[in-house]
Design goal:
The complex is a heterodimer of chains A (234) and B (304). Chain A is α+β, with helices and mostly antiparallel strands. Chain A has a domain of 162 residues: 5'-nucleotidase,  domain 2 (Alpha-Beta Complex). In chain A, 29% of the residues lie in helices and 29% in strands. Chain A is built from six helices and eleven strands. In chain A, the strands form four sheets. A five-stranded mixed β-sheet of chain A has the order 7-4-10-6-11. A two-stranded antiparallel sheet of chain A has the order 1-2. Chain A has a two-stranded antiparallel sheet with strand order 3-5. In chain A, α2 crosses α6. The longest helix of chain A is centred in the N-terminal third of the chain and has 18 residues. About 3% of the residues of chain A have low confidence. With 304 residues, chain B is an alpha/beta fold. Chain B contains seven helices and 14 strands. The two termini of chain B are 19 Å apart. Classes of the chains: A alpha+beta (234), B alpha/beta (304). At the A-B interface, β1, β2, α1 and α3 of A face β1, α1, α2, α3 and β13 of B.
C-alpha cells in the first residue's frame, strides 16, 4: 500500500478561471488465492470447455522423479527438451555432418513437476504450435551461435557443449564445411533475434510439432530422463 | 508498507505566465474530491484455472473465477471502477490451443473488463484468429501504435477511449511492442509498428485536450531493459500528460507502482502485476479540483 500526491494544473487560460487538480493515489496489489470464493457465473461459462479438455489433457503419459526446470545457462528441462528433439529426429538417420539442437529458454514456458506427467503438462511447457525444422549452417556460423549464447546467458542445447565460452559440437568432423542445427520454425525465421539463421545454406521442414515430439518421447521414456549436466559454461 | 510522496512541480499556463509559488489562495473554492479505482491485469496468458497445488512456483494461485469475486468485492465498495488489461491474454494453456481464445474473450466480458490492449501473443492465432475470438467478447481493444490498415484487424481496435465515471473523464490509449523478431511475420502480416514515444505524446495530448482528468497508457512494451530498447520507464521519461502506465510483457511483479519523472518533471506511475492472473493490481485515484479566479497565486508545491 502506498500513497502519492501529485499536483498539476488543468483548465487554465488567462480569460477563464484556472483550476488546480490535486491527484493523490493509493495502491494495493492483491494476490489471488483460495481465500476468495469461486464465482458460479464464471464457472458455468468455463465448465463445458473444461470438460472438453479434461479427458485429453489429464491423460498420464509418463512419470517425473524430480522437477524438470528451465534455466539459464542450464536447466534440467533445457536438457530434456533438446535431447528429445535430437533423439527423435536422428533416430534411424545417418548423418555425415555434425548435428546439434538449439531451442530457446523463452519457448519453454513452464517446468515439469515431479509426479505424474500429463499431456496438459507438456502443453504448458510448449503451448506454441512450433514446428521442428532443420537448418544446414556453414561451419563458421558456430561462432555466431557461440556469441549469441554468451550474450543471452544460455539457451537449451543438445549435441554441443560450451566450455569457458567456446562452443564445440559433440560430433565433430574436421572435414565438415556445414553442420545441422535442429530448431523451431519460430527461431529459424528470426524469432528471439537469432539472426545467424539467415546464413543457412539449406533448410528442411519436418511437419512435426515440437510439442508432439515431446509427448511421444515422454511416452516412450516412461520415466522422464533427468539430466543435470551443465552444457553451457560461459 | 505505507509511504507518502510529495512532489514538487512548477507550471506554465497558456500564455506563458508562470505562476509563482506562494500560499494556496484562501479564496479558492473547493469541490468535493472525486474518486476512481483502476483495477488491472497483464499477461494472463490463458490461465483460466488456478495453478495446481503441486506447482513449483505458484501453488494454488490465480484463477479467473476467484479474480472475478475479488473484482466484485471491490465494485461493491467503490462506485467508480475501471477494469483494464495490458495484453497477452492469449497463449499459455491448452484453452488457447484448443479454442483459439474464445473462452478468454467470453470470460473477460463476463468479468466486465472495460478495455485491453494487444500483446504480442494476442497475434498467435493470426490476425483472423484474433478477430474471430474477439467476436465472442464485448469490450474494446485499444491499440494506438499499430497501423492495421489493409489487415484483417483493421477497424477492430480503437486508438483511444474516454471513459466518463463519477464526473471524471479518464482517457485511455494503448502502446504495443515491436512485433518483428517476436511474432512470426505471417501472423502479423502488414501491421505496422509506430514509434511509441511519438504516438504516446500525440494521444496523451489529444486526451488532455478533450478534458481528461486522468490519462492512462496501457502498455505492452515491458517494464525495463538493460539495452536501449524502449520500455515503460523510458516511455514515462520521454512523454508528458500521462499519469499512469499499466505495463506488461516482462511479467514483472512490482511490489508497488514505480514513480518516474516525465518530460516536465512531473510524476508518472508505472505498475505491472506479474502474469497468469496471479495478482490483481489496484490504484485508487482521488482528484480534488479547486477552482481559482484568474491571477490567483497558487502554491504548486505540497509541503513535507
Amino acid at each position: 500500500m502506498f500513497k502519492i500526491l501529485i499536483i498539476f494544473l488543468s483548465g487554465a487560460g488567462l480569460l477563464a478561471c484556472s483550476s488546480v487538480n490535486t491527484i493523490s493515489a493509493d495502491s494495493e496489489t492483491t494476490s489471488i488465492t483460495k481465500e476468495y470464493e469461486v464465482s458460479s457465473k464464471i464457472d458455468t461459462i468455463v465448465q463445458p470447455y473444461q470438460e472438453d479438455l479434461k479427458t485429453e489433457m489429464n491423460e498420464v503419459i509418463a512419470q517425473a522423479e524430480k522437477d524438470l526446470v528451465v534455466g539459464r545457462p542450464n536447466g534440467t528441462l533445457n536438457n530434456w527438451a533438446t535431447d528429445v528433439v535430437l533423439v527423435s529426429q536422428t533416430r534411424n538417420v545417418r548423418l555425415s555432418i555434425p548435428v546439434m539442437v538449439l531451442l530457446n529458454v523463452g519457448g519453454l514456458r513452464n517446468s515439469i513437476n515431479a509426479g505424474e506427467v500429463t499431456i496438459g503438462d507438456i502443453f504448458k511447457v510448449m503451448p506454441f504450435d512450433n514446428e521442428i525444422v532443420w537448418a544446414e549452417m556453414p561451419i563458421e556460423a558456430l561462432k555466431d551461435i557461440e556469441d549469441y549464447l554468451k550474450k543471452s546467458g544460455g539457451e537449451p542445447i543438445s549435441g554441443a557443449t560450451m566450455t569457458s565460452g567456446a562452443l564445440k559440437l559433440n560430433s565433430e568432423n574436421p572435414e565438415a564445411k556445414t553442420f545441422i542445427v535442429i530448431t523451431s520454425d519460430y527461431l529459424l525465421n528470426g524469432g528471439d533475434k537469432m539472426n545467424f539463421f539467415e546464413k543457412r545454406v539449406s533448410e528442411k521442414s519436418t511437419g512435426v510439432l515440437l510439442r508432439d515430439a515431446m509427448i511421444s518421447e515422454a511416452k516412450s521414456q516412461g520415466t522422464l530422463i533427468w539430466n543435470d549436466e551443465s552444457r553451457i559454461k560461459l | 508498507m505505507e509511504r507518502r510522496a510529495f512532489l514538487r512541480n512548477s507550471f506554465a499556463v497558456s500564455g506563458g505566465v508562470i505562476l509563482a509559488p506562494s500560499l494556496f489562495a484562501q479564496s479558492s473554492v473547493a469541490k468535493k474530491a472525486k474518486r476512481i479505482t483502476i483495477l488491472h491485469t497483464n499477461d494472463t496468458h490463458s490461465n483460466i484455472d488456478p495453478f495446481p497445488e503441486n506447482h513449483s512456483k505458484y501453488p494454488g494461485k490465480g484463477g479467473v473465477s476467484r479474480r472475478f469475486e475479488l473484482v466484485n468485492q471491490i465494485r461493491k465498495e467503490q462506485d467508480n471502477v475501471l477494469l483494464l488489461d495490458a495484453g497477452d491474454i492469449f497463449q499459455g494453456t491448452p484453452y488457447f490451443n484448443k479454442f483459439g481464445g474464445v473462452l478468454e474473450m467470453k470470460l473477460m466480458t463476463a468479468m466486465g473488463y472495460d478495455a485491453a490492449t494487444m500483446g504480442n501473443h494476442d497475434f498467435d492465432g493470426g490476425m483472423e484468429g484474433f478477430v474471430k475470438a474477439k467476436q465472442f467478447g464485448d469490450f474494446p481493444f485499444i491499440c494506438s501504435n499499430y497501423n492495421f490498415s489493409n489487415t484483417p484487424i483493421d477497424g477492430h481496435t480503437k486508438e483511444s477511449i474516454v471513459f466518463e465515471k463519477g464526473g471524471l473523464k479518464i482517457g485511455v490509449f494503448g502502446i504495443g511492442v515491436e512485433l518483428k523478431g517476436l511474432v512470426p511475420g505471417r501472423l502479423y502480416g502488414e501491421s505496422k509498428w509506430l514509434d511509441p514515444i511519438e504516438i504516446a505524446n500525440d494521444r496523451a495530448a489529444e486526451l488532455k485536450k478533450k478534458g481528461c482528468d486522468l490519462v492512462i497508457c496501457l502498455s505492452h512494451l515491458g517494464y525495463e531493459y538493460s539495452s536501449e530498447k524502449i520500455s515503460d520507464r523510458v516511455l514515462a521519461n520521454k512523454t508528458k500528460d500521462i499519469h499512469l502506465i499499466i505495463g506488461g510483457h516482462t511479467h514483472t511483479f512490482l511490489p508497488e507502482p514505480t514513480q518516474e519523472k516525465n518530460l516536465l518533471g512531473e510524476t508518472v506511475l508505472i505498475n505491472q502485476v506479474g502474469w497468469a492472473g496471479i495478482n490483481l493490481g489496484r490504484i485508487d485515484f482521488e482528484i480534488d479540483s479547486k477552482a481559482f479566479a484568474k491571477h490567483d497565486v497558487i502554491e504548486v508545491v505540497a509541503s513535507k
